[in-house]
Amino acid sequence: MKKVLLSMLLLLLFTLVACGQDSDKEQADNESGDNQQEETTDEASSGDTITYESENGPVEVPANPERVIVLSTFAGNVLALDVPLVGVDSWAKSNPRYDLEGVEEVSDENLEKIIELDPDLIIGLSTIKNIDKLNEIAPTVTFTYGNLGYLEQHLEIGKLLNKEEEAQAWIDDFKTRAQAAGEEIKAKIGEDATVSVIENFEKELYVFGDNWARGTEILYQEMELKMPEKVKEMALEAGYYTLSLEVLPEYVGDYLIVSKQEETESSFMETDTFKNIPAVQEGNVFVANADEFYFNDPLTLEYQLEFFKEHFLAE
Questions:
Q1: Which of helix, strand or coil describes residue 206?
Q2: Class of domain 179-312 (CATH, top level)
Q3: Per-residue model confidence (pLDDT) at position 19
Q4: Which residues have C-beta within 8 Å of that of residue 153, sequence separation ≥ 6?
Q5: Where are any strands of DSSP class E within the chain?
Q6: φ, ψ of residue 69 in degrees (nearest 5)
Q7: How much is the mean pLDDT over the chain?
Q8: Is the separation of the CB atoms in 257 and 198 below 8 Å?
Q9: CB atoms < 10 A from the CB of 26, how many?
Q10: pLDDT at 12 over 80
Q11: What residue spans carry the Acidic residues bias annotation (predicted)?
Q12: Distance (Å, whole) CA 119 – CA 47
C-alpha cells in the first residue's frame, strides 16, 4: 500500500513540474511574441519612409533622403538642413552663396537627365512642368510660392526632410538675431526712416513689398523698418511692382537697396533722374549682388542679415 501511495505521489509531482514547465514556456512564447510585435511596430514607425502632408495631399517620401533634386527656389533650404543634393535649377546653380560642387544643373523639361541622377525626392514650385512624369521617377512635392510665410516655408521643408526640429531651432534663433539688429538700425537711422528695395532685370525696374525675397522679409517683417507709402500702395499686396525710371523717385525712401546683376543693364543709375534722388545724394544707397539676394532660404537670409548690419550700421 505504501509503495502504491509513493508511486502516486511521484506521478503527481512529475505532472505538476511538467505543467509548470508548459506554463513557463507558454508565458515565454507570449512575451517573445509581444516583443516581436513591439519590434515590428517600432520598425514601421522608424522605417524607410514617412508620410508628408503636402498641399496636394499625403505623399510617401524617404525618411532620410540622400539624392534630392530641387527644380525651383528651395535649394538653399535643403542645403541648410545638410541633406544631399544631386540636382538643382539654373537659378540656384548661379548663386555664389551655395556650395553646389558636384551637383548637376537640371530643369523640369530634361526628364532624361533627372532619371540619370536617380533621385529619391524631387522638390519644386507648383508651377513646374511634367509633375505627373516626375512623380513616376521619384516622390515629387511642390509648394505654391507665397502660400506660406518665408519662415513657415523653411519649417515645411524641414518636415518634408524629416528635420523639423533643426528647422525650428534655426527659425527661433534667426528671428531673435534679426529683430535685435533691427533695433540697432532703427536707433541709428530713426524710427520713421523709410527703406525701398528695387531690382533691374531684363531692362525692367521692380520695387518690392515685404515678401518677395531680396531681403524684404528681414527689413519689413523682422526689423519692422518702414516702407514708403507709394511702395505700400502698389507693391505690398502683389509682392512687386514694375516701374519706369521717370516715376522711380516716388518709390525711393530715405534708404535704397539696389539688387543688381553685374551683367544686367543698369544705366539707369547713371541718369540725372537717379542721381537727383535724395537717398542717392546722401549716400544712402546699398548695392547688392542680385545672384546672392534672389532667395529667402536660411543661407541667403544669413547673408542678407549681415549685409544690412554692415551697411546700415557702418560708421
A1: strand
A2: alpha beta
A3: 41
A4: 74, 77, 143, 296
A5: 49-54, 57-62, 68-70, 85-88, 104-105, 121-125, 140-143, 195-201, 204-208, 240-243, 255-260, 285-289
A6: -115, 130
A7: 88
A8: yes
A9: 10
A10: no
A11: 29-42
A12: 19
Residues 74-91 have pLDDT tens digits of 999 999 999 999 999 999
- Cell numbers of 68, please? 534630392
In whole angstroms, give the CA distance from residue 213 to residue 196.
Answer: 13
> How many helices (H) and strands (E) in the chain?
14, 12
pLDDT tens per residue, range 237-291: 999 999 999 999 999 999 999 999 877 777 899 999 999 999 999 999 999 999 9
Residues in the chain, total: 315
What is the rounded CA–CA span in Å between residue 211 and residue 197?
A: 11
Convert the pLDDT of each residue in 136-192 to its tens digit: 999 999 999 989 999 999 999 999 999 999 999 999 999 999 999 999 999 999 999
User: Cα–chain-centroid distance for residue 309?
Assistant: 23
**Which residue pairs, CB below 8 angstroms and at least 24 apart, start in 308-313?**
308/181, 308/185, 308/215, 308/218, 308/219, 308/223, 309/181, 309/184, 309/185, 311/286, 312/185, 312/188, 312/189, 312/255, 312/286, 313/184, 313/185, 313/188
Q: What is the mean pLDDT of residues 18-22?
A: 42
pLDDT computed for residue 14 by the predictor: 37
